[in-house]
Amino acid sequence: MPSSQPPIDKLGPDLLLMIFDVIAQDDYASLTSAVRCSRAWQPLAQSAMYGDVFLNQPRLAKFVDRCADTQIRSLTVTMRAIGVPGAPSEANKIADARLASLGRLCARIRQMRPTTVSISVDLPFPRTAAREVAHIVESLSPSCTSLEIKLSYGSLLFPPADFSSSPHHRPHLCESIRTVLPQLRHLRLCLPVLCPALFSTISPAGQGQNQHRQAVSAPLLQSCVINLAQRTPSYPQGAWTTPCSDNPDQVPHGGQEQQLPSALPPMVEALEHFASLNSGNLETFSVMDVQPRDPTVPNSYAGWTRRDFLSRSSFPIPVFTVGGLISVMFYVARTPSPKKEGETEDWATPSSGQLEMIAEGGTWLETKSGTHLPVQKMLKQHRVVDAALTRAQYMQRPDSVRCQLWYTEDDTGERVLPTRPGELMRRWELQEMCPPGWIRAGRHGPMVRA
């Protein structure tokens, strides 16, 4: 007699788990149906469902209340910008709900035992999630070896009456992160404020103004990327990470008009000592600096500067846009080629977040389910978001638009922006250079033969 057993029941648990892992990357609804379909499948399907967890604000509150005892592989929490209406009371109410959810996550995250944690929170200034995120970091279990934190203030609220009077309204997040450095293998940070306490402690021998900072050991750390950009580089105002301060006027936020000091200069010495102490295990240790565009300089660009503290070199990454009027606007970043020194590659994407990850060197990636993971922890079943386009791929689009830079380089046959690295702390001038035998026809005109 033919067997009455369905063919799928003949599959072993390993194959079923692989199937459920693939489904989990694209369709949680189908995976939920699989959990309900068969009791025999429930443990495997739940393992895939809670393998890589992506939570926004509504899902975070439900997950913490219902699934706090579930062990997971990775946790990504993303809270995007809050629209600020005419009366800020609604935005304050949303911010309160978000902070309450993060507080509940803090109490439960140790039981979840994730190996990767990614937290991205955008609140209207001066509301801040720094205290809640600091407590989450301090509550991580030893199983967590990869950490990504991105905090930003994309909009501005009138400060609540008790904000400035609160003695703990702006905790020192740097020190909380430093406490988990010894267990981390991968770290990615994009914070509004930073200071040397992230990578060093005050030596007991130093006193008063003669305090000496001592680099901390992170023997497992393989990759560390610090992005100082608080928005995609533009001109004339760059928005970058500032030194830690109790003064709210010194915190970068949406609507900011004044140019604040960068956090990088006070940190250089601590970064160099940390790189030297941990050079045996570090494979990537870079800071993404911000290069605003000077509008008085023609044919110039804003961008990032990737400062590599292991090779003690820097490389400028100009950023510009193409399209946007009658076609989709793409951000374009010109990055150093990983294949051949002295060459560059242009990458185009409509996503500013994806552009940042490309400019950083692609140490972290985003999957189609929304989770963020270090490249080293990507598995075969993980499906990353659609890759950025090379210039050639972008030009194959029916709505593609060539920019002035591409016209210039096609006409001259030369690269007119830097192609080779420079000194670690070099300030780059991202202005198009005239190749030998060429001149520019007018201030903003095309290149012509001299």
Q: Strand content of the residues, in percent?
A: 15-25%
Structural class: alpha/beta
Rg estimate, integer Å: 24 Å
Q: Give the integer mean of the pLDDT values.
A: 85
Number of strands: 21
What is the percent of helical residues?
A: 25-40%
Largest sheet data? 13 strands, mixed
Shape estimate: globular
Spans of at least 5 consecutive residues with low confidence: 160-169
Task: Report the span from N to C terminus.
Answer: 89 Å
Contiguous helical run count: 11
Folded structure, characterized:
The protein is α/β, with parallel strands linked by helices and 450 residues long. Among the domains are: 7-49; 172-201 and 215-317 and 352-369 and 413-450, no CATH class. It contains eleven helices and 21 strands. Helix 1 runs antiparallel to helix 2 and helix 5 runs parallel beside helix 6. The protein is globular. The N and C termini lie far apart (89 Å). The relative contact order is 0.09.
Short description:
This protein is of the alpha/beta class and 450 residues long. 26% of the residues lie in helices and 22% in strands. β13 (313-322) and β14 (330-336) form a beta hairpin.
Record the SSE blueprint:
Blueprint lengths: L12 H14 L1 H10 L4 H8 L2 E4 L1 H10 L7 E6 L9 H24 L3 E7 L7 H9 L7 E7 L20 H8 L5 E5 L2 E2 L5 E3 L10 E3 L7 E5 L14 E2 L20 H14 L6 E8 L10 E7 L4 E10 L7 E7 L7 E6 L2 H8 L4 E3 L5 E3 L14 E2 H5 L8 H9 L9 E2 L14 E3 L6 E3 L1
Parallel strand pairs: 1-2, 2-3, 3-4, 4-5, 5-9, 6-10, 9-11
Antiparallel strand pairs: 7-8, 11-12, 12-13, 13-14, 13-19, 14-15, 15-18, 16-17, 20-21
